[in-house]
Amino acid sequence: MAIPHFYMCPISLDLLNDPVTLSTGQTYERSSIERWLATGNLICPVTMQKLHDPLMVPNHTLRHLIHQWLQKGHTDELSMDASQLSLVSFSQKMESHQVSLENKLDLLSEIEKLSQEHPDKIYRSIQLGLFSLLLELVFGKVEENLKFVEKTLVCAIKLLPFSNTRSLKILQEESNLARLVLLFNQGNLVIKKSLCQLLVEALSSSLDTKDLCIALGEEQPLLGEIVNYVFHDNDDASEAGIKSISALCSHESNKVSAVRVGVIQGLVTYISRPKRHEKSMVSKAMATIEDLLALESAKWELLNDPNGVKALVKMVFRMSENGNCESAVNSLMILCCDSFRAREDAICAGVLSQLLLLLQSQCGDRTKTNATILLKLLTSYM
């Protein structure tokens, strides 16, 4: 069987069975690269770059594509025909003023379709930097039309699972950060959601997460736009905002800024809604609130929100069904230990009955212990 060259290990030249990717972005057969490293070679065999981190990450996407290819019984090497995207040609068309916006959108639609139905057909182009090129089109202001930006971002998100996320370091550049803020301000729902997904991926996978996180947190207009997104009636939109806020608040310096632009009110509004389809998002929102309550400013904001304490009380037993009530109990503990007003508000909101119900539920031992302490604290002031 003729093996497509991008399905072969660069060392053994055999079909990849257990592909792993190094920090340089190159993929090898695990056993082959392990033997290479075991002999004392601390460079990438293909790029010849020094490996500061010899970590090997399983390339599940490529493994899946190879499995699909084998199942289809291919016997011919995939040729670089019309189905294989030429990055040079694509870049030229996207940047050309002679190519109509409609034709550019059609080409982007074809990429989106291929990434969904036949990712194997453009995998080589992805390896060569298609994802990076799409990011440059968005942040390089090649085309100001928001339809073009939206379509390009949608394609980038489709390619994200197959791509090297180090390309997202582009967001650290000052001009690109300014562009990011502008798109959040002017973009539609799809654009904002896509930008949130890029932010979360960048902050969770970048080797320079700390620097990028600080840079993003210093952009007050950006934080404000993301917090406003949490208020959105659309569940997908508000959930994307919560993921972004949670990622940004992983750095201490961003917490103060987030509270300043209204994150507490946004999160309280989210958990107060009568119906939530994603319990995991409610849990993430609650965990973020608990984390932020280490700040006096966050406590003040929550206590002065008419629904703040009431919303936490409702979460106490409501979240016990899936074992995620701990953040609600802990948040109330933080507030009630320091504030007589918080204790009054919690008791008026029915926290005592909620805690008693919680103690009879299947929640964890640590949560029951904290609930018992909170119950004793509240009853001692009655």
Automatic annotation (TrEMBL):
It is an enzyme of class 2 (transferase). Transmembrane segments: none annotated. Keywords: Transferase, Ubl conjugation pathway. Pfam families: ARM_PUB, U-box. Pathway: Protein modification; protein ubiquitination. GO terms for biological process: protein ubiquitination. It catalyses: S-ubiquitinyl-[E2 ubiquitin-conjugating enzyme]-L-cysteine + [acceptor protein]-L-lysine = [E2 ubiquitin-conjugating enzyme]-L-cysteine + N(6)-ubiquitinyl-[acceptor protein]-L-lysine. Residues 2-76 form the U-box domain. CDD domains: RING-Ubox_PUB. Its EC number is 2.3.2.27. It comes from the Eukaryota. The keyword Transferase applies. InterPro entries: ARM-like, ARM-type_fold, ARM_PUB, PUB22/23/24-like, RING-Ubox_PUB, Ubox_domain, Znf_RING/FYVE/PHD. One of its GO terms (molecular function) is ubiquitin protein ligase activity. Functions as an E3 ubiquitin ligase. PANTHER family: U-BOX DOMAIN-CONTAINING PROTEIN, WDSAM1 PROTEIN. This is U-box domain-containing protein. It comes from Daucus carota subsp. sativus.
